[in-house]
Amino acid sequence: MAQVVFAAKKRTDFGSGNTRRMRKAGRIPGVMYGRSGKALSIDLDGLEFSNGIKGISESTIVKLDVEGESHEAFVKDTQWNIRDGSILHVDFYEVESSTLLRAKVSVHVSGNPIGVREGGILELPTHEVEVECLPRDLPERIDVDIADLKVNQSIHVFDLKLGDNVKIITSGDQVIALVKFARADSASSEESAEGAAEASKA
Description:
It is built from four helices and 13 strands. By secondary structure, it is an alpha+beta fold.
């Protein structure tokens, strides 16, 4: 997917009155925070931003063009108006191309597991994985094929192959997907075990 670009302007006028006029004109106030803690107040075109954020996640790096100056950043927080669904404010977090960063990347599974087709139950306890890498190596998402999973089989974080440039911070023992016996089968197995125990006592 091509990198999303937002054109922004530096904000010099503040106060509630100016903010209301800005929103009436279709602009969204925002702040871009740098790694050093320095903050730059900006505003963006509301329609362009609303369309641009569709389909991106917290691990997607976007480009901010602030009056000719180019910055790469995450969309860290978006405040919405609960009445009409409009965007009230947006926070960006700037990244530096040569500096390692940590981010949580969403996990997307695909495929219909063999074990589910045989009556098992699929569980997906992990929905995101924390990684460390340079911005250019950050995956937008992690795709996991679970089609070959059989009953009593699982996929863990240590099974992920993200390349040599991406370090996984999340514990490798954390389960991403597993297929278990259906509860009815488990209950039946427990009853059988209890019956066998009683028979051995008789």
